[in-house]
Amino acid sequence: MKTMKIRFISFCLICFAILGCSQETVKVKGDLPAYEELISSVEKQRAAFEKEYGKAANEEDRNRIEEKASLYLLDKITHDFFDQWQGTEWDFNGTTRTPRKGKIACGYFITTVLSDAGFQIPRVKWAQQASEYYITHMTSDVKRFSNRTPEYMRDYFLKNPDGLYVAGLDNHVGFVCKSGDEVTFTHASYYDPKIGVQTESLVGDNPFAKSAYRVVGRILNREMVQKWILGEAWEE
């Protein structure tokens, strides 16, 4: 009888621990700001940067503000925006603007995230173009690769500065984030339509690894960030 009582208490403690972990997981997800609040908070910060930028006394001050804004955007996009969109289903014709509601295509994922982060880009038109079109519109820091292994591409990013890149592939597009010795690929995956938006390694069973052609552009450069600060629109 005593043994059964001990087993029952142990069982209860295990259940409590499991429930505690589950509650903690829910709490973490619940801490994510609502998407509309996220967009609003980023716009408020952009307006604050714009005000500070307008008061800058010289080029050095403007450079400092641009660098600060670039780091802010990198953090918001690769954490808050990516976290919100994780698990949104993929569909070739997907155009949803609400994370995890509806479906989204790979190009629309790129342009929607950037648009919602405050970049005045032609979201729909760019999403319907070949990825090289809007990569070259956003940055001049563009490299093209043919028939390179995913390991070669990972080494390429590791040799380059930390930051955010857009990678156009044979029939796909996604974000590449390089941070220290970590390189990840975030995209709306047609390999796993039900999972959709996900972050994974460059090396593996995914469109980045399997693609024969890659065009890579490093974004959040000075010109792009300056346009964001000032709320300037891109030409179509």
Task: Please give the structural blueprint.
Layout (H helix, E strand, L loop, with lengths): L1 H29 L4 H20 L4 H27 L3 E2 L12 E2 L1 H11 L6 H5 L3 H8 L3 E5 L3 H9 L4 E6 L4 E7 L2 E7 L8 E5 L5 H4 L2 E6 L3 H9 L6
Helix pairs in contact: 2-3, 3-9
Describe the structure in your own words.
The protein has 236 residues and is α+β, with helices and mostly antiparallel strands. The protein has one domain (35-230): endopeptidase fold (from Nostoc punctiforme). The chain contains nine helices and eight strands. Helix 3 (59-85) packs across helix 9 (222-230). Mean pLDDT is 88; it is low at 1-30.
CATH top level label: Alpha Beta
> Distance between termini?
78 Å
Q: What is the molecular shape?
A: globular
How many β-strand runs?
Answer: 8
Descriptive keywords:
236 residues, alpha+beta, endopeptidase fold (from Nostoc punctiforme), six-stranded antiparallel beta sheet, 8 strands, 52% helix, globular, disordered N terminus
